[in-house]
Amino acid sequence: MRSEFVQSLARGLDVIQAFGPDRPELTISEVAKHTGLTRAVARRFLLTLTELGHVETDGRRFRLRPKVLDLGYAYLSSQPWWQVAQPRLEAAAATLRESCSVAMLDGTDIVYVARVPATRIMTINLNIGTRLPAHATSLGRVILAALEESALCDYFAMADRTVFTKRTITSEAELRVACAQVAEQGYSLVDQELENGLRSLAVPLRNRVGKVIAAINVGTHAARTTKAEMLQQFLPVLRNTADAICRDMNR
Q1: Domain end: 22, 39, 68, which one?
Q2: 61: Cα separation from own chain's centroid
Q3: Residue 92: which residues within 8 A CB-CB, separation 6 or more?
Q4: Does 58 share its domain with 159?
Q5: Per-residue pLDDT for 43 more than 90?
Q6: H helices within the chain, ranges in order?
Q7: Does the pLDDT at position 242 exceed 80?
Q8: 177 and 120: one domain?
Q9: Same domain for 104 and 61?
């Protein structure tokens, strides 16, 4: 497989990924530093991306252009559930008056692929494309709970299980117990493990053959909603939303 690897394509993607929230504009030297490329190679990639319309420059500094979103949209639009998920997610957020999201597992992180914000309950600004560690999120726990044993072992071998609060579960043994419980009960309730004050509840999103392909969740502030209230009031709405998305997908 390595003989088929196209290094130039990989380098071009590295250049695009050098930009981010903390680095909206970069010089050639800065791109070279963040990608490990030589300055000459970084310059060629930046000029190529500029010619293709993915990057723009004032002659010294470079920044991404909206066209780069086409790369991510191509993925989302290729997912059979994505176009039907958003209106269902909006309805759930309106009913619960809280933020609702859909995420998928990518490596050891979850990636937000749909989101309807209601109130700002986190210091992290969550948008489509935001990555968070799977172990400390309800979305991640739901997806991890559905993995086959070999895939779960691979996850534990790779994951950097960061401690975010005093409640964060990081040990493999404890996470395995938590995932087993999630698999049995069909939902994950994570209480202030990612951020103090944040509680989140998630359920699986399944395809037509019952395989978990993503997870849908709702987040709330711990001072506003108890865990019991989340299970009584939020869980039925989330489950109905996930079922509706699955039905819409299979029409």
Answers
A1: 68
A2: 29
A3: 100, 116, 216, 218, 237, 238, 241
A4: no
A5: yes
A6: 7-17, 28-35, 39-52, 69-78, 82-96, 138-145, 149-158, 172-185, 227-229, 235-249
A7: yes
A8: yes
A9: no
Tell me the per-residue pLDDT of 129-139, one tens digit each, with 9 for 90 and over: 889 999 999 99
pLDDT value for 83: 74
- pLDDT at 2 (0 to 100): 62
- The answer to whether position 176 is within a domain reads yes
Is the pLDDT at 77 greater than 80? The verdict is: no
What CATH code is carried by the domain that includes residue 227? 3.30.450.40
pLDDT at 179 over 80: yes
Average pLDDT over residues 5-14: 87
Which residues are CB-neighbours of 220 under 8 A, at least 6 positions away? 98, 121, 198, 199, 200, 230, 234
Q: Tell me 199's DSSP state.
A: E
Residue 226 is predicted with a pLDDT of: 95
> Which domain does 59 fall in, by range?
2-68
Q: Could you tell me which of 188, 183, 181 has the C-alpha nearest to residue 202?
A: 188
The CATH code of the domain that includes 21 is 1.10.10.10
> How far is 75 from 68, CA to CA, in rounded Å?
12
Nearest to 250 by CA among 77, 80, 113: 80
Structural domain includes residue 74 = no
In the prediction, which pLDDT does 56 show?
A: 93
The total domain count for the chain is 2
Per DSSP, helices labelled H in 97-214 are 138-145, 149-158, 172-185
User: Phi then psi for 241, rounded to 5 degrees?
Assistant: -65, -45
SS3 114: strand
Is residue 200 included in any domain, yes or no? yes
